[in-house]
Design goal:
alpha/beta; 301 residues; 22% strand; 35% helix; 2 domains; Rossmann fold
Length: 301
């Protein structure tokens, strides 16, 4: 995460262009309408990962990161002892509050969970590839913070884009407009296609290659930049943060994936990781980072 600076008397995060692009999309009322409309599991892989984690953490204290409009809150809260949902976009938290006013939701950035004590959750969830919305350094901070607030043996369920997916090729830049006889819908689709064309050519310059790959994704009319990883990189990042080296990978169809197998047809993975018990891991997460109470109170865009 880039350094903090004082602007007009408030702490604000000096964000990268990639993160600014993503936040603009999450704050867009048209995009939020999409998140309001979806309920239930997004696919069989998510359902399987959730079920396994909840079974392992019966009566769990749950932290739901990137809660969006509350879709996962509807799935997790009824099966948990205590539930907290967070998102770094205030507009999304407002949607969650409206859907489930009886639950606790907070505006908070997953890179800094100083509001929570060490080992205060049994299960942490970061669904819908939300962890991929920040760049490499921020991703590592998220993993470290999740490991800190998880109890030893606790589960972390998240989804993340597959760097080797064949859909990240050049064909992603040639989307088709679905025909409709409704002139209003057709005009809307053509307008969105034009916007996507502009974003393709403007945003591609911000793609990052190397150890931490960040790629322009076609979702939201090319409105998001996503981190993309590999199973081997996942293992390195998770073990460094204090998770066990062995973890489960599921395809969107719910199939358990072989680490050495072919995954070019898999757009993203569902990951079920377990917080380690070793002493080195305990020492690494023995204290919370410096608390930055105003991290989410100032609108960074």
């Amino acid at each position: 995460m880039e350094p903090f600076s004082v602007i007009n008397g408030f702490w604000r995060l000096v964000m990268s262009k990639v993160e600014l692009i993503n936040r603009r999309t999450w704050k867009n009322p048209l995009e939020r309408r999409y998140y309001r409309a979806i309920h239930g599991y997004i696919d069989q892989g998510e359902e399987k990962a959730f079920d396994l984690a909840l079974a392992a953490a019966s009566g769990a204290r749950v932290l739901d990161i990137g809660v969006g409009a509350g879709r996962t809150a509807e799935l997790l809260a009824p099966r948990s002892r205590s539930y907290v949902g967070i998102d770094y976009t205030r507009e999304m938290i407002d949607l969650s509050h409206r859907l489930l006013p009886e639950l606790r939701f907070e505006v908070m950035d997953a890179r800094n969970l100083a509001a929570f004590e060490d080992a205060s959750f049994d299960l942490v969830v970061f669904s819908y590839n939300g962890i991929d919305s920040v760049e490499g350094e921020g991703r590592l901070q998220v993993l470290n913070e999740v490991a800190r607030v998880l109890r030893p043996g606790g589960c972390f369920v998240f989804s993340t884009f597959n760097r080797g997916w064949n859909g990240f090729g050049t064909s992603r830049f040639s989307p088709r407009v679905t025909w409709t006889a409704d002139p209003v819908r057709l005009a809307y689709r053509l307008t969105m296609r034009s916007m996507g064309w502009f974003r393709q050519h403007w945003y591609r310059r911000y793609e990052i290659q190397g150890e931490h790959n960040v790629i322009l994704h076609h979702a939201h009319h090319f409105g998001i930049m996503v981190y993309a990883t590999t199973p081997a990189q996942l293992r390195r990042q998770l073990t460094h943060a204090g998770f066990e080296a062995r973890f489960d990978l599921f395809s969107p169809q719910g199939e358990m994936l072989d680490f050495g197998g072919e995954t070019c047809d898999v757009e993203y993975f569902h990951v079920l990781a377990v917080r380690g018990h070793d002493q080195e891991s305990e020492n690494r997460h023995s204290s919370a980072p410096r608390k930055l109470d105003l991290l989410s109170s100032a609108d960074p865009i």
